[in-house]
Automatic annotation (TrEMBL):
It comes from the Eukaryota. GO terms for molecular function: L-ascorbic acid binding; metal ion binding; oxidoreductase activity. This is Fe2OG dioxygenase domain-containing protein. Belongs to the iron/ascorbate-dependent oxidoreductase family. It comes from Psophocarpus tetragonolobus. Signal peptide: none annotated. Keywords: Iron, Metal-binding, Oxidoreductase, Vitamin C. InterPro entries: DIOX_N, IPNS-like_FE2OG_OXY, IPNS-like_sf, Oxoglu/Fe-dep_dioxygenase_dom, Plant_2OG-oxidoreductases. SUPFAM superfamilies: Clavaminate synthase-like. It holds the Pfam family DIOX_N. Residues 202-302 form the Fe2OG dioxygenase domain. PANTHER family: OXOGLUTARATE/IRON-DEPENDENT DIOXYGENASE (PTHR47991).
Length: 361
């Protein structure tokens, strides 16, 4: 899907190239903090506070109802949880880490074969939405991997064969996992199954990100604060370097990710479909001065032609819809034409008294 008729996208300079020459200070274009910095808790033991869900126990355990209650609590109170017992082999995760790391270590001219093309958002690099936009401290490869017909022929099919092969395996495993999780989320929310059919053979986007070390990490953001324009997101912190922070009660909480665990978070679309019962949560990525961080996220969205809105099974006169209805393709397109800024885009979807008044005139 192209975006030529909306924002005029450009590609930013590669961060890995910038730091080849030793830096003593950060280029002005990348300085974001401390101008927009709410308080951050110290990270000692905070990883233990993020709920952990064991999928194997949830599906095959003796007390699935108790496990479903844990899932409901994690989604309702945090919007994030660590997933263990997910069934993806540690050997697959290790191979994936090695291959993704190898991609980012390729010479720039090799990586630029996959560069973001004019009017698009897919490809290698960092998007510049506007001339005055502050840039994040990271290099990315972003691509649509489902439906198969939507894959760009110059991206995944042209990646180095060893990377492509492990990605295909991992994508298939994650697609199965994602649909299981969406089904479980729908179950605890009591959304009718037919209303979740929009996710079947839906849109799946994959983002690989390399966050290089930074001489002044306190002044930059690896990824600006935002919520995800997805149903759910599955994050794999590939090389074990922490950096994810989530916003809870106005405070940024660092997440200590367990070895071989995956991080699951609720996106805007589930907040809309649940009519606000589950909230998408602002999160961001920080960097450090010593070690690069490598992550991979997969975003699960409904089919582009489908329409999203509060689930009919969850709304009634006592619980009226809180969000407008919108076609998924338009929702995602509009999301990409705005800078990441917390949950500001989702708020545009909220039904207000002013909206209702205008509609009734």
């Amino acid at each position: 899907m192209g975006f030529s008729e909306s924002a005029s996208f450009e590609q930013a300079l590669n961060i890995q190239e910038i730091i080849k020459n030793p830096l003593t200070s950060v280029p002005q274009r990348y300085i974001q903090l401390p101008y927009n910095e709410p308080s951050t808790l110290p990270d000692e033991n905070l990883g233990q506070t993020l709920p952990t869900i064991n999928l194997n126990r949830l599906i095959h355990g003796e007390d699935t109802q108790l496990e479903l209650q844990k899932l409901n609590s994690a989604c309702r109170d945090w919007g994030f949880f660590q997933l263990v017992g997910h069934g993806i082999s540690p050997l697959v995760l290790k191979k994936l880490k090695d291959e993704v790391e190898g991609f980012f270590m390729l010479p720039l001219q090799d990586k630029m074969k996959y560069k973001i093309r004019p009017g698009d958002v897919e490809g290698y690099g960092t998007l510049i939405i506007s001339d005055d936009k502050k840039l994040d401290w990271g290099d990315r490869l972003f691509m649509r991997v489902n439906p198969l017909s939507a894959r760009k022929p110059y991206l995944l099919p042209q990646l180095p064969s060893s990377l492509r092969n492990i990605l295909e395996l991992y994508i298939e495993e994650l697609q199965n996992l994602g649909m299981i999780l969406l089904g479980l989320v729908g179950k605890v929310l009591k959304i009718e199954e037919r209303e979740l059919e929009v996710f079947e053979d839906g849109v799946h986007n994959l983002r690989m990100t390399y966050y290089p070390p930074c001489p002044q990490p306190e002044l930059v953001m690896g990824l600006s604060a935002h919520s995800d324009a997805a149903g759910i997101t599955i994050l794999n912190q590939l090389n074990g370097v922490n950096g994810l922070q989530i916003k809870k009660n106005g405070v940024w909480i660092p997440v200590n990710v367990m070895s071989n665990a995956l991080i699951i978070n609720i996106g805007d679309i589930i907040e809309i479909m649940s009519n606000g019962a589950y909230k998408s949560v602002e999160h961001r990525a920080t960097v450090n001065s010593e070690k690069e961080r490598i992550s991979m996220a997969m975003f699960f969205l409904p089919k582009f032609q489908s329409e999203i809105g509060p689930a009919v099974s969850l709304t009634n006169p006592e619980h009226p819809p809180l969000f407008k209805r919108i076609v998924v393709e338009k929702y995602v397109k509009d999301y990409f034409t705005h800078e990441l800024n917390g949950k500001s885009y989702l708020e545009r979807m909220r039904i207000t008294e002013e909206n209702v008044t205008k509609a009734s005139i």
